[in-house]
Specification:
This protein has 278 residues and is an alpha/beta fold. It is built from 9 helices and 7 strands. It comes from Marinomonas rhodophyticola.
């Protein structure tokens, strides 16, 4: 990997994992276009990084936002796209508002697909000109392989993203665009509500730091693996769930009362917040 030749568009750069990826790439000498929705947070991040970088304020779920991203990516002839921006969901399906379902699928699945399609010609042009590979990286999740109660919409979005990435990896195998799927497990960022974090602790789930997740992504790009799942035993569960899902069913059925306890608390917190606002 020739890091110093790379120009990378990183979506969701202001988030927990995004900031850590930005820092790790900047330290490698990558030139970054940092995308997010808050100009002040993007500027603060850019100022904190080694090297010169650009910021881009855009919402990936709007046509206008994606057009802005594409213009900037074309102008800067990016060689790497990291679809990292995403939103979480922690609720029973019956308590999940339709708007949340639509927003989650748009941010986590539809926007990465549309950005990949729009920017593929740019990635292809860049690698033809430089005669080096270009990279398309989609940030998935362990929940893109394991269905988890209380996160059905998030799981649907990440299962979809994994399928999309795998198909594209195979479709572009005879080109110089390398397609990667990277799947963190629970990580300490604000995508997880307090109740979701408390549930992870109660279930004994490991929680990674964003920095260790970013290092793992760097390792994946250096080794060139198409798929990378972060952490043990999660990567084993991913394999078991793929081959023998009924075994994972049984393990997760036992945990359902704990999961539902935290989902109820989340609902109470949300109801109280709505009452305060109204
Ligand atoms: N943390 C975990 O436990 C975990 C585990 C597995 C996978 N992941 C995946 O890792 C990725 C990064 O998550 P994170 O943990 O770093 O979450 P985070 O701290 O909440 O950051 C999410 C980022 O996405 C951006 N974003 C969300 N919706 C957007 C939109 N409509 N348009 C533009 N930007 C938008 C946010 O921008 P704003 O700051 O403007 O909101 C923020 O920069 C996600 O794809 C997530 O699914 C996370």
């Amino acid at each position: 990997m020739q890091w110093q030749q790379q120009t990378c568009l990183l979506t969701g750069a202001t988030g927990g994992i995004g900031q850590a990826i930005a820092k790790a790439l900047a330290n490698k000498g990558v030139s970054l276009i940092l995308q997010g929705r808050s100009e002040s947070r993007l500027q603060q991040l850019s100022n904190s990084l080694t090297g010169e970088h650009q910021i881009l304020v855009a919402d990936i779920t709007t046509t206008q936002g994606r057009e802005k991203i594409c213009s900037m990516a074309e102008l800067n002839t990016i060689s790497m796209l990291i679809n990292n921006a995403g939103v979480g969901q922690f609720s029973l399906l019956e308590d999940t508002e339709e708007a949340v379902i639509v927003d989650t699928l748009e941010a986590n699945l539809l926007a990465p697909i549309l950005l990949s399609k729009a920017l593929l010609p740019v990635l292809q042009k860049t690698n033809q000109r430089q005669a080096t590979p270009s990279y398309l990286v989609n940030i998935g999740s362990a929940f893109g392989s394991i269905g988890f109660a209380g996160q059905s919409i998030y799981c649907a979005s990440k299962f979809g993203l994994r399928g999309f990435t795998e198909a594209l990896h195979r479709e572009l195998a005879d080109t110089n665009v390398h397609v990667h799927y990277f799947a963190p497990r629970a990580t300490a960022t604000s995508i997880n509500s307090d109740q979701a974090m408390a549930m992870n602790q109660a279930l004994g789930n490991s929680i990674d730091s964003p920095e260790s997740v970013a290092n793992s992504l760097i390792q994946q790009l250096e080794t060139g693996h198409a798929r990378q799942f972060v952490g043990f035993p999660e990567k084993l569960f991913v394999k078991i769930n793929g081959a023998f899902p009924h075994i994972v069913d049984k393990a997760l059925f036992k945990k359902l009362p704990i999961i539902k306890r935290f989902l109820r608390r989340e609902k109470d917190v949300e109801q109280t917040a709505q009452e305060v606002l109204s």
